[in-house]
Design a protein that fits this description.
- The chain has nine helices and no strands.
- The chain is an all-alpha fold.
- It has one domain: Tetracycline Repressor, domain 2 (Orthogonal Bundle), CATH 1.10.357.
- Helix 1 packs across helix 2, helix 5 packs antiparallel against helix 7 and helix 7 packs across helix 8.
- It is elongated, with a radius of gyration of 21 Å.
- This is TetR/AcrR family transcriptional regulator.
């Protein structure tokens, strides 16, 4: 890394440290050593460590939630949206997110951001699933289930075991499509009942 490093370089290094060593590793000196830079370079980009943390949280929220929501909103095929969201979920920085969640238990400011990201993700997922299953309450429940599986994986399993996560997400995707088939079958049965009654 050179002296021309940018804010983005610091944010990437901070996310890596968060993933590997936890939030306690986010120190100015440690970041500068990781990048091979002086503390003067750090203070050229950030007012201090709290400024870096705020930028890191904003970056995490933007890259891993809002930008995804915009991309999914542009997809017209419901089945395609579910597939895109599955791949996004698998590609998240799981170790860093697990440590962010641990950090949020000790810092109310971090907790607010994590809660907002979780709510945004559930909202995007609910909307996408709703297009597939057609029932708002069931879409909500399936979104909560899927989000809970993701967070549970991050907290209780090896965040680096993406093969296991993919198996779980594949199973979850099949569950959504099974609900879609159930909904379609129920609609057909209802229609048949109406025709028979007529």
């Amino acid at each position: 890394m050179t002296a021309s490093s940018t804010r983005a370089d610091y944010l990437r290094a901070a996310m890596t440290l968060l993933a590997t060593d936890g939030y306690g590793a986010l120190k100015v000196g440690r970041l500068c050593r990781e990048l091979g830079l002086t503390t003067g370079s750090f203070y050229h980009h950030f007012a201090g460590l709290p400024d870096l943390v705020a930028a890191l949280l904003a970056h995490w929220e933007e890259e891993n939630t809002r930008r995804v929501a915009v991309a999914v909103a542009e997809i017209t095929a419901p089945d395609q949206a579910i597939g895109v969201l599955k791949e996004v979920a698998i590609a998240l920085p799981h170790a860093a997110e697990a440590n962010l969640r641990a950090w949020s238990l000790r810092d109310p400011a971090i907790a607010l951001v994590v809660a907002r990201v979780d709510e945004e993700r559930r909202s995007v997922l609910t909307a996408a699933i709703g297009l597939v299953v057609g029932r708002p309450q069931r879409a909500h429940d399936l979104a909560v289930l899927g989000h809970s599986v993701l967070v549970g994986f991050q907290q209780s399993r090896d965040p680096g075991d993406l093969a296991e996560l993919r198996r779980l997400m594949d199973l979850y995707e099949r569950l959504i499509h099974a609900e879609s088939a159930t909904s379609a079958g129920s609609a057909e049965n209802a229609a048949s009942a109406v025709v028979a009654a007529g």
